[in-house]
Structure formats: structure tokens, C-alpha cells
Amino acid sequence: MRKLSSDRMSELFERLDSLCPLYLPGEKDGAVSFVRYEQGVDYAVGALNTVRSAKDFFFPQVENIAAFRMTGKKIEILENQNGNEPFVVFGVRACDAASFSLLDQVFLSEPVDPYYRDRREAGTVITVACGEPDTSCFCTAFGIDPAEPKGDISVWLTDGFLYWQPRTDKGENLTENLTDILEECDGGEIKSYQDTIKTIANQLPLANLNLSYWENTDEKEIFASPVWDEIYKGCLGCGLCTFVCPTCQCYDVRDFDCGETVRKFRCWDSCMYSDFTRMAHGNPRKTQKERFRQRFMHKLKYFPENNGGLVSCVGCGRCVRSCPQGLNIVKTARRVSDD
Amino acid sequence: MQITKTIKKLVSEGKADRVFGWKKGELGFDTEPALFTEDFDSVVYNSLCGANLCKYMINETKKDGTVLLLLKPCDSRGLQLLTKEHRVRREKIYALGVPCRGKIDVDKISDKGIKGMIDIQENGDTLTVVTLYGEQTVPRQDVLYEKCLSCVGKEHVGCDEVLSPELSEDTTVNDRFAGVTALEEKNPEARFAFWRSQLSKCIRCNACRNVCPACSCVKCIFDNPSSGMDSKANADDFEENLYHIIRSFHVCGRCTDCGECSRVCPEKIPLHLLNRKYIKDIHKLYGDGDEAALLTFTKDDAEPSVVYERGEGHA
Fold first, then answer.
1. What is the dihedral sign for C-alpha B172, B176, B179, B182?
2. What is the pLDDT of residues A177-191, one digit of tens each?
3. Which of A177, A186, B58, B299 is paired with A294 by a 20 to 30 Å CA distance?
């Protein structure tokens, strides 16, 4: 483990950014998101989670796949994918870091998604432990430890010091370039900081979410639960929860007609939208109840069944905080299981 | 609770067979819109009931029976709009006005650096915020929704019954058009830069559209695959601008200024400023009567040249 005095953090950011582009949580017009680091950008150290999750780095909301140009009867295929230069993202929380493993299940299993894979290879993830978990947090319900975040490098920000622990080869390689400013230290120094985090995490009101009903009940029975008839009533059918969610990974492929050229791009889709799963014969989910149910069945039942029991939620609490009408995954999971 | 008593009485008298109101959420400080067919004791109404419920009536009144709807003063204007535009079957609604003295924006409490909120207790003009890290007090006025800081009025409109109207307060502290005036005073380049920067945060979640009582198209152009305009993401860096410009123009002259668009935006884009700009201009050009100025023809309507002249400097 290594450490650095907290007042030298901007020096660290300068150094990282000189190695390859650095992104970190910063405030823009009242909302915190991952922004490109430059002089004058302040790291939003107090913000627990960004509005959008860190999945954007590997699975962006929109990405080009290819473009086509028509000249008479000739069609030319144009490469227009965004490049994959190495980059570093600092300030990822334990929950978002855990979401990458879930996305890997989807995009890195056969057939491998080359766009996602290339970005995963290009990115180095530096996580930061959560000193003050908030009421909406429930990552511990999924075995995620906010005091011991994963990633290529883990960082703890205590009073006065930044502690730095590389975890992967990528993390070690990056650290090699920074040995002159990061001094070696004994890892024991962060123990009490971690203990405090654990004490808080255990008191969080949503952290005792119990999914045993979901694990042990037949999917047809859950699907047919009468609770769905009531619980969706407040749902607006907007895509907010799906777009801020670090584990939602549904997408659509679209054409953008630019006249002589057509741009094929991929963009996030939302199971809350009326034309999601629309096919030649029509739409199998015609009502908001069915769309609402699909979102939670996917996360809590279908995904685990197809991925060795992994639940497609990391407890980041974004849906808890952002849903305009106060609906969220915890509420749904508990009501359906009558917990 | 007087509201529960009134609800039970109205249902027993046959005025309605179900209730659309709010119920307690998973935490001590959240509520959710909900439909009640029994268990009326679990209807809650407090300072955390910011959501406007009137738009749910579009679907609810397609069903049989009568629904008792709880409405704050600003929500009642939304129901009035939906009624005028024949989007709801008004005869299937029993509109019960409930008093309002401004609603609490939990994000504003968080913005004060208060973390680990467990509960919010209200004592007059002070809130006690119970957190994992101890208790803190916050002046109520500091954490009201933006929409409440320039309240559109404490009087209900078009309700069948209003409960305790004397308890409603106008919580206005800001001139309603102050934000618009500040933008008008900027030069066009600075104003353009302001909106480009704000709108570039948009994630196209459609929450502003779906919550808006004036956005009641059966099939929105942005959802319609046959329109050539449907999109789930911003395919280029002007598309979200286009979306908001079209949406705000479409509700222009119909917007009730309920402030829901800004309340629900996860990126805190001040969308109400677009709507208020139109409202301010309409008031200036056509007066601030109740009639929908842009849907009403009168022989002495301003000619286009006059509109241009009166609107000069505010383009």
C-alpha cells in the first residue's frame, strides 16, 4: 500500500492525466457526473454517487457502429467507431465497480461484444471507499463491501491522507509511474477508517434487503403475483431508473439518416418504453404493468437464473434517490415477497 | 387525521369507490402515488407529497366507477387543464382539494451536506432531520421545492370540495419571473451557452414529459416509430436541445407552471424556465386572463407585427 498527503491530490490528478486522459466526478450545473479532468475541475469528493453510473465508460449511451454511403448504386461502408485510447477513471464507488462484473457476464460471454471488450481493456478503474454511506445505499445486501472496493486500484480518503492499493496488473503498471509521489506505507493505517464504514453500513435501513423469496420461489408464481397489479400504479413509464442504473444493459440498434450516408448506432433502450421489444407482430408487453414487472423480474429472477445466481443489482441506490414517484427495486422486491 | 375521515365519509356516501393519493414509502422521507380501494388509513398526506397526481386520471377514468383524487392547489390547475382538453372524464372524479404550505425537496436537504437521513419531523417552520449521524434542524423555507418558492397560488380551482383551505399558504419568496428576467438580461450568446450547457446534461429519460399534465398526447412523436423522430438517446449533440425545444413549445400556452418537470429531472435542468418564459411573454402580449391565449381568437388580437414590436428585445 502507498499513501499521499491529501493536499497533494491535484498533483496526483495532474500526473494521472499526463499519462492518459483522466475522468473523475465533478459538478456541472448543479449535478455531479464523471467529467474529463483539467485544471480548475474540482473532484467532487463529498458526492457519494454520480447521477449517471460509471457504466457509461464501457457501455456508453450512444456509440457508432458503422456508416454507409450511397453513391448511385454503390454502397460504401465507412468506419466511424470512436477510438479506444487508454483512459483512467478515478472515484468509482464499490457498487459501480461491482456492476462491471455483471456487465462482463453479458458483454464478454460468447459472442463477445468487441466494443465493450476494447473499452474494458483500455480503461483503468480507480475506486474510492465510501466514507459516509447514505440512506439510499444497500450494496452490502449483495455482498459488496463499501470499505474494500474492487477495481484496478483502490483508494481510501481519510483525514489527511489518500491511501492507494493496486489490485491488478493494470493497477500495478499505473502505480509504477507514480512511485515518486506515492510513498510506501503499512496497510494497517486504514483499519479504523474501514471499521467506521462497516458500522455505518450495518445500520443502513435498506441494507437488510432479503431476497430469499426471490431465490426460492418459482418464477411463474412470482410472475403471477397479484402485487404487480397495484405496485406499478405510480410508475410514470419514464426511463429514469433504467438510464441511471449501473446494471441495466439493454440496447437498441438504430439508423440515423444523414441524407447520402446512413449512420448505424447503438443506444441504451429502456424496458419502460412503449416500443421496447416491439417486433413485426406487435408488442408483447402492452401495458405499464407488464413493463414494470419485466424490469424487476429481469434483475431479480431471470438474470440470476441465467448467471449462476448473480442478482442484477448492486445496491447503488440511484433508483431510490431518483425515481420521481418514489418507486424503486427495494420497495418492489419487498412488497412482492411480502417482506 | 381529517383527510382519512373525510375519505371514509365520502366513500361510504358513494361519492367514490377508490382513492388516488399518496402512501408512505420505504424510508422515513419518501411517499409514492398509490391507488387505494380499501385500507384508507394508509393514505398519507404531508409535506413530502410533492408529486402531482392529476395525470394519472387519464388512465384511471377510462375505468368504471368514480375515483376520489387528492389535489394540492397547483395540482388542481392540472386537472382543470386535463378537463378542458377532454383528456379525463371529469364526471368520474371526485376532486378533493387538500391544503398545502409548500412541499419539501429532500435533495435540498442533502445539498446542505446532511447525509444518512432516516426521518424528517416537522415542527412549524423548522424541520428536524434525523440521521445516522445525529439530528439536525433545517428551516423549512430553505428546502422547499423550487416550484413552491414561486407558488402559483394557494387557491384550489375546480374542486368538488376543499378541505381546510385556511391552512394553505402562499410560500412565494421569489418573483415568479426573476429567473426568466435574469436570462433575458444576458446577451444572446450567453443565453445560448446557458441552455446548451444545461440541456447537454439531459439523459433522455422522458421523466419531464411523462409527468407533465400538459403532455397528454396519446402517442408522443418521440415514441412513434413512424414519425422519423423517435429516439431513445441523443444521436448527435443537438438532439436533446431539439427535444426540449419541441416539448416546451408544444405545452406553450397550456403549461400550468406546476413545476413537475424541474422537480423530476435527475440532472436538475431548470426546465421550468423555458415554460415561464412563454408564460411571461403571453401575459405581456395577450394579458394574463384564464383563457388559453394561443387557442383563443379575438378580433382585437395583436397582429403579428404588433407581437413582434411588443416582444422586441425578448426574442
1. negative
2. 999 999 999 888 899
3. B58
